[in-house]
Design brief:
The chain is of the alpha+beta class and about 325 residues long. The protein has 2 domains: about 150 residues, Lysozyme; about 140 residues, endopeptidase domain like (from Nostoc punctiforme) (endopeptidase fold (from Nostoc punctiforme)). Helix content is about 35%, strand content about 10%. It contains 10 helices and 8 strands. The strands form 2 sheets. Strands 3-8-4-5-6-7 form a 6-stranded antiparallel beta sheet. Helix 1 packs parallel to helix 4, helix 2 packs across helix 7 and helix 4 packs across helix 5. The longest helix is centred in the first third of the chain and has 18 residues. The termini are far apart.
Length: about 325
């Protein structure tokens, strides 16, 4: 598998995957039942672990394709799919791009890898995830998670997302922590599929927008979100008050480098800080959740989907009276 490594976040738990909490990772409704069913294929994995892995691998994009050829929602390399792909829906085909085949295949592959690395010392869940990313041979060779930065970040990111995220506020002036960023991602994921509405969305959720966008599109009569409204909502659930516009949200956040990106950080677009026109919420693996433009819906988008990527920033706890 290939993933754009997310930044180091929370250290992995020693809790076996099979003893993990329920499905607290938000997933698209159309995949929820399949993930819950597939995530119980063996005691070593859980629906929450499977959901976190799919979030990291593809952002639940069944058509995702990596630069090295990994494909589909589970980002299988063709050779791995040939040996591990299942006909999950029983239609007589093993389709790498069909989530009904790829999701059960991802779960089964995790179970197979669990058996392959069962005698390797260390955290079992970490070893399984490392094997999914780098291969079981590498895990056996190094006696645990191999010393590959991408694989180490991959393991830690998925483990953090699969664990129960911590909510709660923080002291004004401090940046949100890794668990709070994951909570913001989970909150935003629940809104995937909601309509885009110019000026729509606030701390309470979807709302009717206003008129008009620079190209004349109106949010009047459309209950949903624009890009900054979605950010406001996701972070309001943590008690973090964000300004209304994307440019103001950048000013209210602390810039971070691409090397330090972690789920929940914000992705900004524009030619300068004052001309920022779009914002998304980073989820890992080179993907974000955003409300792109009139006529679309809240969705998963690659961070390179716009040519004027300006930078990344981490929200700062700010009291409402300071906004």
């Amino acid at each position: 598998m290939v993933v754009i490594a997310a930044a180091l976040i929370t250290a992995a738990s020693d809790t076996p995957a099979g003893q993990a909490l329920g499905l607290s990772v938000s997933v698209p409704a159309k995949y929820k039942d399949l993930i819950e069913e597939s995530g119980n294929k063996c005691p070593e994995i859980s629906p929450n672990l499977l959901a976190a892995l799919l979030t990291q691998e593809s952002g639940f994009n069944p058509k995702a394709k990596s630069p090295v050829g990994a494909r589909g929602i589970g980002q299988f390399m063709p050779g791995t799919w040939e040996s591990s792909g299942l006909d999950g829906n029983g239609d007589g085909k093993r389709d790498i791009l069909d989530p009904e085949d790829a999701i059960p295949s991802s779960a089964q592959h995790l179970c197979d890898l669990a058996d392959e690395v069962k005698d390797v010392p260390g955290n079992k869940q970490n070893n399984i995830l490392a094997a999914y990313n780098a291969g079981s041979g590498a895990v056996k060779k190094y006696g645990g998670v191999p010393p590959y930065k991408e694989t180490q970040n991959y393991v830690r990111s998925i483990s953090a997302l699969a664990g129960k995220p911590a909510g709660g506020g923080g002291k004004p002036g401090t940046v949100v922590n890794a668990d709070q960023g994951v909570t913001a991602v989970n909150t935003a994921q629940e809104m995937v599929g909601k309509p885009y509405s110019w000026g729509g969305g606030n701390a309470d959720g979807p709302s009717t927008g206003t008129c008009c966008s620079p190209k004349g599109s109106s949010g009047k009569g459309i209950s949903g979100f624009d890009c900054s409204g979605l950010v406001m909502y996701a972070y309001a659930k943590l008690g973090v008050t964000m300004p209304r516009t994307a440019a103001a949200q950048y000013a209210a956040s602390k810039p971070v480098t691409s090397a330090k990106l972690r789920p929940g950080d914000l992705v900004f677009y524009g030619s300068s800080a004052s001309s920022i026109h779009h914002v998304g919420i980073y989820i890992g693996g080179g993907y974000m959740i955003d409300a792109p433009k009139p006529g679309t819906k809240v969705r998963y988008s690659p961070t390179d989907s716009m040519s004027d990527l300006f930078g990344f920033a981490r929200p700062v706890h700010t009291s409402a009276k300071e906004i």
